[in-house]
Every structure is written in structure tokens, then in C-alpha cells.
Amino acid sequence: MSKAASIAGLIAALLAGGAASATEERGAVTNLPIPRFVSLKAGETNVRRGPSLTHRIDWVYKRRGMPLEVTAEYGHWRRVRDVDGAGGWVHYSLISGVRTVLVEDDMLELHSRPGDNMPVEAKLAVGVIAKLGDCTVDWCEISAGGYEGWAHKAALWGVDAEETRD
CB 3.0-4.6 Å disulfide test: which of 4, 139, 145, 163 passes with 114? Predict the structure, then answer.
């Protein structure tokens, strides 16, 4: 296929409403979307300056379940960034596809159903790691410490603003 034909195909896809699929970046190793959210499997994870064991360890994560965003792939390594924007390389065996979120608002209310007028089931402190469930446009169902409920998506880190989940 010629370069002109390839560009014409891309333009046709964009005009037909395929903008999201035409521009979505995929990982060269996994073919999964980049960026994407994952969580830490291990209770202690080294974050390295580069994608190999010979690269220096810049710091160590010590919270199992911590949500991270994968921003690149190289062999068995994933470049990640955390809620503070700090990044580095982590071996793929230390991360999981299980989705978690980090509570960013103190005393975040968990409602029985999506809606500010719904009963409050619990309140979560800032920094709590919660398992992510379903998400609507503005709300996500989360669970932590034996409690579950719906929280404002904007108060959570580890889920995209446009993301919906069933």
C-alpha cells in the first residue's frame, strides 16, 4: 500500500467516526492500549531508571495494589508513572491487570448507588487504595476495607475521566 493510500485510509476512518481507533496507541509488546492503568502485585517493587536489571533503582514502591499508569513497553519491562507523576521501569511480573484506584479526596463518601442524594455507606480517607468496579460517566463503584459503594470519579486516581466500565 502506498503512503498516499495509507493517509487516504486514515482520513476516511476519521471522517467515518473512527477517530478513537485510528489514534489509539498500542503497546509494541502486548498490543494493549498505551497509556493504561494497572496495579502492583507485589508488596515491594523496585522502580528502575531503565528497562533492565543493570539500571539503577531509583526508588521502591511498598504498597501492594497501588495503581500505576503504563506509558511504554520494552520487552519484559513497563514504564509506569504514579499519582505524583514520578515514573520509571518495572518488570512486567510485578504488575497486574486488576484495576485499583487511589482516593484523592479526604472523607470521600461512598453512596449506595450513583447520585449525591443516595444514602452514604461509608467514607474513605485520602490515600486509600480501592478495587475498581463499574464506572459511569461521572461515578465509579469501588470497594475497600469491607465497604463498597459509588464515588465521584473525579475524586479517584487510576481511572480516565472518559472511561466507562460494566
Answer: 139
Q: Mean pLDDT across the chain, nearest whole number?
A: 89
- 49-56 average pLDDT score: 98
Evaluate if residue 27 carries a pLDDT over 60: yes
Q: What share of the chain is helix, strand, coil (3-state, %, to 5)?
A: 15, 45, 40
Q: Give the number of other Cβ atoms within 10 Å of residue 102's Cβ.
A: 21
Q: How far apart are CA 129 and CA 99, in angstroms?
A: 10
Same CATH fold, 101-157 and 25-98? Answer: yes
Secondary element (H or E) of residue 87: strand 87-91
Sign of the four-CA dihedral 148, 150, 151, 154: positive
Does the pLDDT of residue 101 top 90, yes or no?
yes
CATH topology of domain 25-98: SH3 type barrels. (2.30.30)
User: 71 and 35 in contact (C-beta within 8 Å)?
Assistant: yes
pTM over 0.90: no
Query: SS3 letters for 8-69?
Result: HHHHHHHHCCCHHHHHCEECCCCCCEECEEEEECCCCEEEECCCCCCCCEEEEECCCCCEEE
What percent of the chain lies above the pLDDT cut of 70?
Answer: 86
List the domain boundaries for the chain.
Answer: 25-98, 101-157
